[in-house]
Amino acid sequence: MKIDTLYRTYGPMVHRRCRQLLRDEEAAADAMQETFVRVLRRGERLHPRYPSSLLYRIATNVCLNQLRSNRRRPTTSADPLLPFLEGRERVEERVLDAYVVEQVFSRSKDGTREAAEMLYVEGRTLAETAEEVDLSVSGVRKRMRSLREQNLSFVDG
Fold it and tell me: How far is 63 from 21, CA to CA, in rounded Å?
């Protein structure tokens, strides 16, 4: 398949994937272009039996590399949760997990992250969590509901 046909057919899909990972329109457009440049460079060696899967994977790698090299936004606050995310041995998955965790809690109130860790990572009850973070059980429920609602658009991508 010719590169221009691939670009016209799969360009929107690649752009959506880049935008989903990078959360920046301009960076997503650059990453999309880089994806097709890589396909163009390796055109003879690539045999895209399933071009959408190939382009999706290349776009993912381009975006993850870009996230790694930018490091402008701190992701250190996501580190404590990463060991609890099972099956994430690969570097790309850990980087993406750190980014997702950071985005999930970036818009939440102080103490929400701590409450979520207690409930979902440590397995504490609502009452134990409420006592520890100095909220009522109802307050903890509201925070968790708000956290889910705030991040539905992020998760649904």
Answer: 7
Q: Distance between CA 141 and CA 30 in Å, rounded? A: 41
Full set of structural domains in the chain with CATH: 3-70 (1.10.1740), 76-156 (1.10.10)
What b-and-e string marks burial along 61-84, b requiring 16 or more CB atoms within 10 Å of the CB? ebbbebbeeeeeeebeebeebeee
Query: Helix, strand, coil % (nearest 5) of the chain?
Result: 75, 0, 25
Q: Over the stretch 88-109, which tens digit does the pLDDT of each residue have?
A: 456 666 666 666 667 677 777 7
**SS3 (DSSP) at 142:** helix
pTM for this prediction: 0.45
User: What is the C-alpha end-to-end distance of the chain, expressed in Å?
Assistant: 29
Confidence of residue 77 (pLDDT cuts 50, 70, 90): very low
On whether the CB atoms of residues 98 and 74 are closer than 8 A, the answer is: no
Burial classification of residue 93, based on how many CB atoms lie within 10 Å of its CB (0-12 exposed, 13-18 middle, 19 or more buried): middle
